[in-house]
Give the backbone structure.
Amino acid sequence: MSQVAAMSHAVEPAESPLTPESWGKLGMWLFLAGDAMSFGCLIVGYGILRHASTKWPVPAQVLGINLTAFMTFLLIVSSVWMVLALAAIQENNKARFNKFLGLTILGGATFLGCQAYEWTHLLSERLPELGIYFSNNLFATTFFVLTGFHGMHVTGGVIYNTCVLAAVNRGRYQAKHVEIAGLYWHFVDLVWILIFTFVYLL
Amino acid sequence: MTTEAHSTSAYIKIFWILLVLTIIEVAIVYLGLPRMLLVALLVIFAVWKAALVAMHFMHLKFEKKTLSIVAIIPFILCVFLILMLLPDIYSR
């Protein structure tokens, strides 16, 4: 890493200690920092509302955590597939890269399928049984806002990764672009780890 | 390339740690621990897992300091947000 950086930056005498190795990576990190603040505000808001509410159902009993534990597993595995895809493209192994990025996309799509199933089940059966509705209950509101916002990020990630897969195979993208896409995908995984704990387990 | 940090076996190792931590998290929910202990444990595990993902999968551990500074700012602001909201919670 440092050797590559030293080579590519040898011509920039005005470099400060904080000059990033890659502007693309810095850009993605800046976006993720902003995104983290959005998620941070939603999670903190959720915490405040929950703390202030006198009646709050036990999430594990209403939502069920077995399917969600599997979804967490899916995102972690797809994150690993993403780093393996990155390792493969860095070694110029196209076939291995295609396999692992394909699996990453498949993992993300399966996650979305599980979430669609979960939402359908909750909205049509589980919540009406308990007399809880999206519009009149903070538990339901915060749940759908948080998981929905995250689900949109997964959707975006699946589309992003699909574009990266296509662009690499057409020779437009190299390993550095895959690494930047990976940052986004791991961030989505990281946020789900927090949501899984705070919304489902606590 | 720093071969050690980016090697496949290192990634797989992190995967197993994440998997075990997730299983422990789900297990302790079923244990019926006291509420405060449960909350403390789950928050520690969640932050630990998030840090593992950021450090190893997002390579933060092996990057220049610039990216770490960018990454840490939202967390500082979120702590600040919680502090600002504390009066609302405790003046109730």
Q: What stands out?
A: Chain A touches chain B through 54 residues (CB under 8 Å). Chain A is about 80% helix and 0% strand. The longest helix of chain A spans residues 94-130. Residues 49 and 196 of chain A are 18 Å apart (CA to CA).
